[in-house]
Amino acid sequence: MQHIRIEYTENIISRTIQGAWQEMSFVVRVDNLSYQKHVAIHWCGEEGEWHIDEASYRCTLPDGSELWYACIRRPLTSEHSLPGNIRYSVSYECAGRTFWDNNHGRDYKVDADSGVIVYRDVPIQHLFYDPVLQGGKVSLSIDSAVRSSLHAKNVRIHWSTDKWKTSHVTRCFKRPNHWDLVRGSVARNPNRYGWEIWTGRLPIHHSYRVEYAIESETDHGVVWDNCHGANYQSRRSTLRVLTLNLHCYQENDQEYKFKQIAQAIQDFQIDLVCLQEVAENWNDGNGDWASNAARRINSFLPFPYHLHTDYSHLGFDRFREGVAILSRHEFSATDSGYVSDSQDIYDIHARRVVMAQVHVPYFGPVNLFSAHLSWPEDGFYPQFDRTRQWADERHDENVAATLICGDFNIKAGSGAYCHIVNSSEYEDQYLKTVNRPAFDQVYCDRVQDIEGAIGHDGRIDYIFLKKGSRVQSINGLELFTDHSYGRVSDHTGYYVEFELT
């Protein structure tokens, strides 16, 4: 079975006053056999020397396969000529096996400055699809390759920015000097491989997302590229949330583990981080800001986050123990308060929650609560109810989402967990992303045996989203395990990614 396939290749020579260079771009489709994979382009130019360049993940398609992309750029210098005509193949390493697409052992061949060649047996191909809309971009340029043998009369993009409540149609144009205009190239349009490029530009303004499909009217009837019936979609950045209990300086190699947490925040570009068991030296109750765990994690980030923290009680007989929020985006409001009956700093069941409102670009205001609640027998129920009431009071029609995150000290599926479910206000977003059947049984079908529906879960840390929020979770991961950044606490971290609805 072929698990890797070349979709299309571009070979262009650009000539400007800055000089000349050759750009070779490759789009490869691979079957998603496992998370860890390696995709590479093996190529040589007219000089005959073989090179290997890595491809990077681009997006996942509706059928579950992935698109990977590589762009190789070579300048013309006094020491090196341009690669010229190239031959190439692609490899895919996954789960200890290597798969190839090498044109049945003959390699693929693409002439220099020839434009695009599509290898899929399709009449029209959307080129270089990008699912991410960069911040600030107010228009989207879309290129499509159409088989010139079809004699396309019109190419149109059907698109919507509001999930097809309204829709628009934008005409595309075929310009003979397309490559000269966009890249300073003399490639022809159409080219010798029988493909012609049509271009359209969508005025998306500041929309969060755009969905679209491409229609071509030809001598052989109307043909479409609509991403296998699912339509193409590009959107702004998602909202990424992490919750983690830090274990109050009880770890060996503590500084290394703080650095690992900062690395994950950086790698995943996490927007909002909720931390619990955030410790700093007691110092006769006065604290010691230099030792604050959230501050130290923040110091390892290349661009420090905004930080809001407060402490609840004396922890481990030597720390001010509390909770914190780190945010990539500026706080528009912060607050903190005890949700426990006790407010005695020498009582372990004195529990304070911190809250922040953050204006997330394209999302709007998001209310976030970082909580570390007591065990069920020691005050969980009133503590959660006060936190919920507080969150409800801060939520209004202008707030895009309200999230209550942290260490709840209750097992998934337990009676205390059922208390949250039965409130009918907050839903477990990690469960929703990693075990949707269980989520639907618990939160939609309202099964009686919640513990049986969830099964062996083991979590006591959660990311709860208020129902009616204008976001939906699309991805969830457990971090800081033996296989993901290593253990940094006696808890693991939970990450959930959201998009606007």
From TrEMBL:
InterPro entries the UniProt entry points to: CBM21_dom, CBM21_dom_sf, Endo/exonu/phosph_ase_sf, Endo/exonuclease/phosphatase, GPI-anchor_lipid_remodeler
Pfam families, per the entry: CBM_21, Exo_endo_phos
SUPFAM superfamilies to which the protein is assigned, alphabetical: DNase I-like
Domain of life per record: Bacteria
CBM21 domain mapped to chain residues: 1-111
Protein name: CBM21 domain-containing protein
Organism: Novipirellula rosea
